[in-house]
């Protein structure tokens, strides 16, 4: 099946050059139809669905997840998004005045705000360790990151793949050292599932969240929180409901607290078996590998056009199907609007402080011609000199 035919499996507007899969993902039509069928079943028999059939389907979805991402079905629960997942963790952590959370200045803004909120409550300090760009190697990154370690460091919080800069970070090495030091590890893997390999048991983070509606192609509102067994009973429920002090407790207080939180439409959670079928039938893993190779080949070409340099080595240690290219622009927000309104290109302009990037997502349904069209469009804008220097 050609990439053009693959695009027909999605409901994306064919008039738009869609190079922003990373923000919210896109769900293939067969899976979306399964999602809608679950919603219909919910409405047809809500009592039986919420108390029995939906519960059984949820369990099957968890089994598929556990096999795919290498963990126990008892060590995670599904959530609407990573923000919900990590609000559950961050608001449960016992922090005191002076405790330090070591992070980077590459993190997702919503998580920065969550930490700021919690630190305001507790007097703890959120350390945004500066990471100079470009990064030359894993060793270079790790040296800069760990230079922020002090005797007050209690928690490590870091992205597996960053949002604005689209960098794969060496979290396995970070978790290994943090575990030896007795530090708590929270890993934000929002962009990871379906994008790069993920073995949750092997990674051995205390807390790991990821979005399944991004690169794994689930319907919107499908994410997860995985928690190491030794940490599970330390988590308070974000929403206190029937699972708290349950009259009919299961074998796991952890699951009771966090899976039974009131009435909700769990249809997005129930599509993981149909997603697994889609991945196998379409050989999606092999197709995403090809997409990575194409994007990595184009990255230096965009850098040359924009008279800039890669922010990391152009290889699979640091880059997947998404990359951020530094740009010099006096009008970053206007540039995004011009690309959409005049050129019909959906692509974000991201930033870290005063540094701006154009972030390209290249999913298996994208065609190389779309990168060529983006290149031509940026070249035209650069020649005008208004939006790109």
Q: Which terms would index this structure?
A:
389 residues, alpha/beta, Aspartate Aminotransferase, domain 1, Aspartate Aminotransferase, domain 2, 2 domains, 7-stranded mixed sheet, 3-stranded antiparallel sheet, 42% helix
* Fold-level CATH name of the largest domain: Aspartate Aminotransferase, domain 2
**CATH architecture level-2 label of the largest domain:** 3-Layer(aba) Sandwich
Number of strands: 12
CATH superfamily membership of the largest domain: Type I PLP-dependent aspartate aminotransferase-like (Major domain)
Average per-residue pLDDT, rounded, comes to: 97
CA gyration radius, whole angstroms: 22 Å
Structural class: alpha/beta
Helix-strand pattern: HEHHHEHEHEHEHEHEEHHHEHEEEH
Main beta sheet strand tally, sense and closure: 7 strands, mixed
Structure characterization notes:
Helix content is 42%, strand content 15%. It folds into 2 domains: 3-28 and 283-384, Alpha-Beta Complex (Aspartate Aminotransferase, domain 1), CATH 3.90.1150; 68-269, Type I PLP-dependent aspartate aminotransferase-like (Major domain) (Aspartate Aminotransferase, domain 2), CATH 3.40.640. The chain has helices spanning 3-7, 21-24, 29-44, 46-69, 82-90, 109-122, 138-146, 171-181, 200-203, 253-259, 272-281, 284-305, 332-341, 368-384, and strands at 17-18, 76-79, 100-104, 125-129, 153-159, 184-188, 207-211, 223-227, 322-327, 345-346, 349-352, 355-361. The two termini are 40 Å apart. The protein is an alpha/beta fold and 389 residues long. The chain contains 14 helices and 12 strands.
């Amino acid at each position: 099946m050609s990439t053009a035919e693959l695009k027909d499996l999605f409901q994306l507007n064919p008039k738009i050059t869609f190079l922003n899969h990373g923000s919210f993902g896109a769900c293939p039509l067969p899976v979306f139809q399964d999602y809608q069928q679950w919603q219909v079943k919910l409405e047809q028999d809500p009592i039986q669905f919420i108390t029995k059939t939906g519960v059984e389907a949820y369990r099957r979805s968890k089994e598929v997840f556990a096999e795919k991402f290498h963990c126990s079905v008892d060590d995670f629960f599904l959530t609407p998004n990573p923000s919900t997942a990590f609000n559950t963790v961050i608001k449960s952590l016992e922090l005191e005045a002076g405790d330090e959370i070591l992070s980077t200045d590459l993190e997702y803004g919503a998580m920065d705000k969550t930490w700021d909120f919690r630190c305001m409550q507790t007097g703890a300090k959120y350390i945004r360790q500066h990471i100079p760009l470009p990064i030359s190697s894993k060793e270079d990154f790790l040296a800069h990151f760990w230079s922020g370690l002090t005797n007050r460091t209690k928690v490590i919080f870091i992205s597996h793949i960053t949002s604005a800069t689209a960098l794969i970070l060496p979290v396995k090495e970070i978790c290994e050292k943090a575990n030896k030091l007795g530090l708590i590890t929270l890993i934000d893997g929002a962009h990871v599932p379906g994008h790069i390999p993920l073995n949750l048991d092997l990674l051995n983070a205390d807390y790991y969240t990821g979005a399944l509606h991004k690169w794994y192609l689930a319907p919107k509102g499908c994410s997860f929180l995985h928690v190491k067994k030794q940490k599970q009973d330390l988590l308070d429920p974000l929403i206190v409901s029937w699972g708290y002090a349950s009259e009919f407790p299961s074998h796991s207080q952890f699951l009771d607290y966090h899976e039974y939180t009131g009435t909700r439409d769990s249809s997005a959670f129930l599509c993981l078996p149909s997603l697994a079928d889609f991945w196998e039938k379409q050989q999606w893993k092999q197709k995403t590998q090809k997409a990575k190779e194409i994007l990595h080949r184009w990255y230096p070409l965009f850098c040359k056009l924009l008279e800039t340099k890669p922010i990391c080595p152009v290889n699979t240690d640091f880059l997947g199907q998404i990359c951020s290219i530094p740009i010099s622009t006096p009008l970053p927000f206007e540039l995004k609007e011009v690309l959409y309104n005049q050129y019909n290109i959906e692509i974000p302009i991201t930033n870290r402080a005063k540094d701006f990037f154009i972030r390209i997502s290249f999913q298996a349904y994208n065609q190389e011609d779309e990168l060529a069209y983006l290149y031509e469009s940026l070249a035209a804008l650069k020649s005008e000199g208004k939006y790109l220097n």
